[in-house]
Amino acid sequence: MVTTTSRQNSSGFFIGVGCPGCGAVLALDEGFFVTSCSYCGSVLRVLMPEIPPAFMVKSGLDTTRVRFHLDRHLKNHNQPLTGSDLQFKRIYYPYWKVDASLLKARNRIEERVYVSEAGSESQTEHVDRKQKTDIRITPYTVTVAAGAPLAGLPDSLGVRSESIRMVPFSQDNLEGDFDALPVLRSWDQIRSRIVQAVARMNEINPAAFGRNITRLFTPEFSLVYFPFYAVESYEERYRRFLLDGLTGRVLSTGDPVEQPQPVLNIADGQQAVTEPQAARPPAVVDRISFAEDDVPLEPPEFSPGELNVDFHRCTNCGVDLPAVQSCVYYCRNCKEMQILERSEISSVTVEMAGDSAGPDDRLVPFWWLTLSGPDAGRLGKLFGSLKPVDRLVIPAFETAHFDGMYKLSRRITAAFDKLPRHRTQALDDRCIPVQVRPAQAVANAEIIICREMLERGLALPDETTSLRTDQAGLVYVPFHLENYFYMDSVLNAITLERVLID
């Protein structure tokens, strides 16, 4: 579904950016990279970096509100309220956010009990046991702490990472008196931890036969800086509390301790052990407790990718392109086709299936990929074709219904050679936007092949083995509505569930 700025966002991941034309603030959904400014009307495109970008969550709490939440917590736990000499330390703590897809195969025994009445006094019971493998694709989102481990700090943002508002991270966006802790875990380290965590999923629900399989696909990384307040009290005995900088929730108990624990100096990243606190501390607390871990004290070299916004215009004549999310655009001014998402594939052709499409037809885009090596040899057997199959056809529109996409891909792959195709240089309003990039199409092809192999009881290739493609192309196939589903208008043989594109 195409989202515009007129749609009221109520959930999801948000990115706050500024319009390059008038400077107005824009709120964009994650992955939504084309919009129009509601103030000046400029059509804009968000330019995502190749390396993981960094975002931050604004706190919105001042020290008065933080103290209110802390006192309420102390009152509820029958503890003395805060005194006059509270010290506040405002920090931004980094988390890695990983968005991926999981292919899961779960082997179980399905039991069905049949009872037959042989008479009024006796019954016969029969139990039928069958082996069944459930195969599905599910989204996978997780956040992992990227900075130095701090006592009381959560290791993950949890489900809130799907609903918090964010802005691009920069020193200019840091609120006064807030310090951003350095990133001590690189995304390569986090990747290995995620792979290990995914592998452990097979142990949660043991397989009734064989072994369960969980495989990670298309992980995308971003860095999220989340606000926290460290509040320290020095009346009678030293106490330290850690509060969520967004909601004010108290995260640590604040149990009294004899002296501050070993601390991490935020300014220089060096560890230092303090002596027992005998006198009143300085007005600004610049040290927080640091728990021992295997992370380095010296931050690794890391520069997050920079998120930019530019005008969404034709590269040939400079006229605004349509404000829809797509990889392919048609300029109605100069009649030129624009393919914005380039891939490692040398050339991409755009074709139309059939000689003509009806005025009420919907032109549905598909990526076709020519495979090389062993991948090409096994496609025909996997898809039940008697002839060699060297191309895999993947829907080029986004959908949350993977099973429907998987079945559609199988249908159109089997019928692809029978579709007459010709190159096209023009697109119209009947064309559905191309929301799947070529790299995403290759990843979806890998998932489909792996699922097909699991369905047939075949061993999956090694995770380090990637799909090899020689060529790729884009083809629009006309579909017309027939009651509860769409039917292709060329062969009248390929069905498409309405829920996939409506």
Please tell me about this protein's structure.
The structure is a single chain. The protein is globular. Strand 6 (86-117) and strand 7 (123-145) form a beta hairpin. Strands 1, 2, 5, 6, 7, 8, 9, 10 and 11 form a nine-stranded mixed β-sheet that branches. Strands 18, 19, 20, 21, 22, 23 and 24 form a seven-stranded mixed β-sheet that branches. A three-stranded antiparallel β-sheet has the order 3-4-15, with no helix packed on it. It is an alpha+beta fold and 502 residues long. Helix content is 15%, strand content 34%. The longest helix has 18 residues, at 187-204. The chain has two domains: 63-103 and 140-289, no CATH class; 326-501, no CATH class. Residues 1-13 and 257-292 have low confidence and may be disordered. The chain is built from six helices and 24 strands.
Helices and strands, with pairings:
Elements: E1 14-18, E2 25-29, E3 34-36, E4 43-47, E5 54-56, H1 63-76, E6 86-117, E7 123-145, E8 165-168, E9 178-180, H2 187-204, E10 213-233, E11 239-244, E12 263-265, E13 271-272, E14 287-289, E15 308-311, E16 328-330, E17 337-339, E18 348-353, E19 362-371, H3 374-382, E20 391-395, H4 402-415, E21 421-423, H5 438-455, E22 469-482, E23 485-488, E24 495-497, H6 498-501
Parallel strand pairs: 1-8, 5-10, 6-9, 18-22
Antiparallel strand pairs: 1-2, 3-4, 4-15, 5-8, 6-7, 6-10, 10-11, 12-13, 12-14, 16-17, 18-21, 19-20, 19-22, 22-23, 23-24
**Count of discrete alpha- or pi-helical segments spanning 4 or more residues:** 6
What is the chain-wise order of helices and strands? EEEEEHEEEEHEEEEEEEEEEHEHEHEEEH
Helix content: 10-25%
Which stretches are low in confidence, meaning pLDDT under 50 for 5 or more residues running? 1-13, 257-292
Which structural class best describes the helix and strand composition?
Answer: alpha+beta
Indicate the proportion of strand residues: 25-35%
What's the mean pLDDT score? 76
What gross morphology would you assign? globular
Total number of domains: 2
Total beta strands: 24
Please give the largest β-sheet: 9 strands, mixed
**Gap between N and C termini:** 8 Å
What is the radius of gyration computed over CA atoms, rounded to a whole number of angstroms?
Answer: 28 Å
